[in-house]
Every structure is written in C-alpha cells, then in structure tokens.
Amino acid sequence: MRPFTLVTSDDDLLLRRGVEKVLSGLADDVSIETHDVDEEGMPDVRTASLFGGEEVHVLRFPKVPTGGLADELGALADAEPGGAAVVAAVLHGQGRVPKTLEKLAERAGRDAHVAVPVPPDWADEQWDRLVGEEFRRLGRHADASGVAAVRRHAGLDPGTISVQVAAVCAATAADVDAIGEDEVDAVVAGHGRQSGFAIADAVVARDPGGALAAARGALEAGDAPVMLAGALAYRLRQLLVLRGGGDGRAASLGRRPLSGGRLRGLQREARENFGPGELARVVDRVAQLDVDLKGSDLPADLVFEVAVVDLATPRAVDPLRPTHQRRPFVTEAG
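Predicted structure:
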C-alpha cells in the first residue's frame, strides 16, 4: 500500500466509501487505526507498532486543515516509504477540490489522490451507478426499475440512498435475484430532493406523473420555481434547436458544444418524443410560466406544478400555428 493516500469528498458518506475503496484488498492481519483529527493536532502515526505487523492509520478531517495542522499533513505526504501507511480523509465544501488539497496530492506523488465528489444533479448515469454500488456492497442486485425507484424516493442525497437501499435489502427475501420497483415501493415511500434536470427528464419523456413527483421533490427541498423553470427552458430550447437542424454547438446555447452520446440522445428525444409543432408549443408554455411566476396571485408552487403537468402531457397542435390559442367565439350579447 502507498505510504500516503489522500481521499477527498464533499459528502461524508462518499468520503467513507472512498476510504473503503483504498483499504479494500488489504490482508486480514493488517492493523487499521482510525483517528478523528481536530485542531489540537495529529496522533503519532510514524512510530512502529510494539507488536509488529503492517499498520494503516486513517486520519479523518471534518474540514480542510490549515496552519500547523496542514504542515503536519504535508510532512506525512513527503515521508519516504517505510513504517505505517497513512490515509488522510478530508471533507471539504461543495464544489471542486480546494487548491491546498490538490497541491498536497501532488507532493505525495502520482495517483495518491482519490476524489469522490457528489455527482452533478444532471448526471443520471453516475447517480444510477451510485445506487447500484450500494446494493452491491450488501451483496444484492437491483434491476433498472429498482434503481429508478430508489432514486425517486431518495432524491439526490447519497446518505438517504444508502439508508433506503439497506432497508430494502433487509426487507427483501434473500432468494430474490433482482430487486425491482415493487420491492422498493413496498419498503420506502415519499420522494426526495430532485433537480430541475429530473423534472426536465420526465417532461421530455412525456410522463406527467413522474414530472409532478419530481417537481414536488424539488419544491419541498426549497428550490425556487423560477430557477426550476430555467432548467426546463434550457432543455426544451436545446431540443427545439436540434429539431430545427442545429448541430451540437448551436444546441449548447452558448455552453460547451454537445457531442457524442449526449448529442445523439437529445436528437432522438427531439425526433421521437414530440409531434409536429409540439416543441414550439412547450417552449412558449415555459415562457408563459415565467410570466405567471412573476405576476400571478396564485401560489408559485401551484403555478409551477400545473405548468409541469401541462408540459409533460402530449398534445396535438397545429404545426403552422403551434403557439396559437383558439379562443371561444363571443357575441355582442356576451
């Protein structure tokens, strides 16, 4: 094992999973000592054990070390091989790894850094993989419907995912080869925090029920309806551009050009999930949603939920006038 390994994450559960990955494969006779490090300083981890044998010290930092503590950790990273191995597990703020930790990993050498960040809200494949790995840790397997059900209930929270997977595995008979949606729904209920991307996925899939559930998960988590509407607008405008013949650069709407599987997936959605003129209608409906959120007397959450169901519901429109709203004929008498 390496003399020094740095594990970083912006989530406590994923930090533990990273440490488990580093320690996996060690021989049974290896002694593992875990220390919670505070500002008082670190324990002596370089003194050889009186009992002999290989040792590994796991140092857990609740925040990025600074000052003298950072100097001590740097000295461990610079140490030559020999003696006990050290695994430094550092929980940092959300977002990218701080520069101080990147420099520490560079001092320790190539491949000394194991980063386990929380997946971006839009990274469905990464969230699916996270759920699947939690099942595999417990020696179980979940099919696609079971993974989707856990994500629907747990939302975007690794800790909640882990707890719910453990509950489902404990309640499901051992002879069930693949845990599916029915097994998950029989154990857990409700819906966790979702993102605007999850709402957009359900809208594009033309799934009103799924879109409403995702909307409520996002709203109950405190996300502002106007921000969620922005995520919807971005996704639907992308599809409209592709439906009109635009390429990956045009469909990026000023961001990094789309390419590869992502571009092909969006092209397929634009081609197969919306009838003639329907994309123009839903883009216009999102614009109206923005107006309603800023000027309606109704509760913003209600306005948003009604719009989401409307957006996710397939409708036949006049392709020549897709955004035209036919109004009832009114006589002079009323």
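Summary: Residues 225-243 form the longest helix (19 residues).
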